[in-house]
Structure formats: structure tokens, C-alpha cells
Design a protein that fits this description.
By secondary structure, this protein is mainly alpha-helical. It has helices at 2-26, 46-50, 56-62, 78-99, 109-127, 145-179, and strands at 52-53, 74-75. Helices cover 63% and strands 2% of the residues.
């Protein structure tokens, strides 16, 4: 029964994540919301995290004649990354539902307050990413592709959360130019 519960949890999280990514890509609210399920977040499996990750670049270098090329073997942190990506998908859903709902007025004080709180929540999320999968602007450490994708997803959610503010500022600037 434990295996089925784990698979259910992982499949639900993967479906939830795919819905959030697709919704942000096509510019629509998410279809699967947290109101539709009560499955807990996935858990971290140390054995999966400890598996070594090899880049495709390493595979290509194995076939080259250059013996001085260093290969990178890193722990994959696959389940930790999946957990943090699922957490980020929940934040993306909150942003989409609060800011981009059909009847949401991005100029209303309430919407601005919610957006500000969600932006703070995003900052807290970023600050609490485990060091093993954190990427800083000054980092030179090689990271697995899925870790890089987590960070790309994070920055796209940050952009999503700040887009209404930029849009209302640019709209106001455009209107003031038209009036003058």
C-alpha cells in the first residue's frame, strides 16, 4: 500500500506541475487547483538523490580523443528538486488564481496587496531552497539540468508575479502620453 500511496503522491504532483507549466505557457489560469485534491507533497528519497548525474556533454566527451577533459559526476538530487518544483507550482497557482483571474482588477488595492504578499512568499521560497540545489548568480558549480529548470521556473514565476505591475505602469505611461 505504501508504494501505491507514494506513486499517487508523485503522479498528482507531476500532473499539478505540468498543469501550472502549461497554464503559464499559454497564458491561462490553471485547470487543476489545490481545491481538487488533498494529496500531500512528494517526499525526498535519499537513494534517488544520491544517484550520480552525468551530463550529455560528458557522454559526448567520452568519445572524443581529448583525454584531459574532466567529467562531472554529481549527486542528482532528483527527488529534492521534484519536491521544490512541486512547492513552486503551488505558488504559481496562487499567483495565477489571485492576479490573473478573469475578474481580478490588477489596479485594485486588494489585488496589489495579495500580489505583494505572494512576491514576499516567492522571496522566502528562494531563500529556503536547500544549498545542494541552490544556484547563485556567482556560482560556477555545474548543476544537473532539472535543478537549472527549477530555477528557470522560479524566475518565470517571479516575472509572472510582477507582470501586472509592469503592465499597469506601462499602460499609465502610454495613456499620459496620449493625453498630452
Amino acid at each position: 500500500l505504501g508504494l501505491f500511496r507514494r506513486l499517487d503522491c508523485e503522479l498528482t504532483s507531476a500532473s499539478h506541475l505540468a498543469d501550472k507549466l502549461w497554464a503559464s505557457y499559454v497564458g491561462r489560469p490553471p485547470t487543476i487547483t489545490s481545491l481538487h485534491y488533498d494529496t500531500p507533497l512528494p517526499t525526498v528519497f535519499k537513494a534517488l538523490d544520491d544517484r550520480l548525474w552525468h551530463s550529455r556533454l560528458d557522454d559526448e566527451m567520452e568519445h572524443s580523443d581529448d583525454d584531459d577533459t574532466p567529467g562531472a559526476e554529481l549527486p542528482s538530487y532528483a527527488s529534492t528538486t521534484f519536491l521544490w518544483t512541486a512547492k513552486l507550482a503551488i505558488l504559481a497557482e496562487k499567483i495565477s488564481s489571485a492576479i490573473y483571474a478573469l475578474k481580478s482588477d490588477t489596479r485594485a488595492a486588494h489585488t496589489k496587496a495579495v500580489a505583494s504578499n505572494l512576491h514576499l512568499e516567492l522571496g522566502e521560497f528562494y531563500e529556503t531552497i536547500p544549498p545542494a540545489i541552490a544556484i547563485s548568480p556567482h556560482s560556477t558549480r555545474l548543476q544537473p539540468t532539472h535543478v537549472i529548470m527549477l530555477h528557470l521556473f522560479y524566475w518565470s514565476v517571479v516575472d509572472l508575479s510582477s507582470s501586472p505591475t509592469r503592465r499597469s505602469i506601462s499602460l499609465a505611461a502610454g495613456l499620459s502620453r496620449l493625453r498630452s
